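Standup notes
- DV: blocked on the single-chain target, sequence here:
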Amino acid sequence: MYDLLSSEDINTINSATIEVLEKTGVLVESDDILNLLKKAGAQVNLEKKIVRFPESLINESLQKAPSSFTLYSRKGEQYVVGGETPVISSGAGATWMLDLETGEPRPATRKDVEETSRLTDALEHFDVCMATAIPQDVTSTVVDVMAAEAMMINTSKPYFLAPGDGKQARYIIEMAAVISGGMDELVKKPVLLGVASPNSPLRLASHDLDVVEEFAKHKIPITILNCTISGATSPVTLAGTLVISLAEILSMTVVAELINPGTPVMLGMCPACIDMRTANATFGDPENALVSVANAQLLKHYNLPSWTCASEVDAIIPDTQAGYETAWKTLLPLMAGTDMISGTGHLGAATGGSFEKLIIDNEIIGAIKRILKGINVNESTIALDVIDAVGPGGHFLAQKHTREHLKNERWFSKISYKSNVEQWKKERIDVWKKARKEAVEILRIHQPEPLDNEKAQKIKKIVEEAERTLSGPSGT
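- DV (later): unblocked, structure below
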């Protein structure tokens, strides 16, 4: 386990976080939540909508949240979030995609969500599916509902969604309940994980609080994450960014647990930095990886599941830069014990997506999983008998010991180039091209487990109702 912060560092950051929540406070843009917090013992300025949280309320609320929860696939497969094995998800939020045929950036479409979901369904190192893209060809007021339908039809893996408001969250939960066989079954065996985000610095917006309320009132798991930009919406110092980030996600967690004690929550940070030369937000910097590592350590202090956006990079295409940014942003948090990661398949500081990068990230995560397994030392792996049998000058290729241990000891790549220079001269193929070929082939042959037609029709009707309700003047 990789420990970045010392115990003293963790205590200092936690103490500073409590001071921010007690002294500076948080802007809460909901009268109902303000009254809920006031009733619970928080110091509330109703005129300015500023809430100051006493440490006792924070600790009491956090103790109500479970230390782990389980997500389920349509097939009944279980993924424990906060268990011994990290859960891997694809990423979400791209407004443009690299076209699979031309390799050029273009606006993201609903079809992209369908196909990336189908691709995620096929890739063995992904456990959970997010809507890689925000479709630009659907009405904005129902974009998350439309993306949810595209995912639910095209993967049987659990769904990880970030509704933009409470109205869309309500429809998405209703759709997930259809898949589960009813709301009671959805609550018992959730196929859906939600997302809500505080707004940095120190602001809980009404639309995000509405999302929290929709998930919390059913006790459906929800991820509470913030997306600070160090140097812009959080201090330029990483320690200061950690303090403000932790204050934001803890304050929203208090809200979730007051709405419905025992609501499963996962807390996370999706850190960015501001590039002072261009004023652009950047995701691929090593500083962002460090914040993600620290996030995992800090949340262990509260005994809550941790999440980070691990594989989002600044590179525009799946090139060398994308590779090294993905490697350090993914390896370090997983070594630190992060419970769940996402961001895979993303480019351009999370604004873009790529079929090929999903394939490449699957390869990288497979290798990282092998690294995390470490070295198994026992009588069989020490191999004294086989070393003695082969002796000086022999070889181990034909040994039974090699066959018995090969699969457990070795990681087998799918797209990494492993041939010699002479073969490469003939093929002239790079990883991007190999990943493109793999993605095209998967999309050609892979079909997810079909959703029951009756359920698919019910979901379609829910989507149609959402379009009627949310696309008109009252929904905009």
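- Follow-up: Residues 5 and 294 are 7 Å apart (CA to CA).
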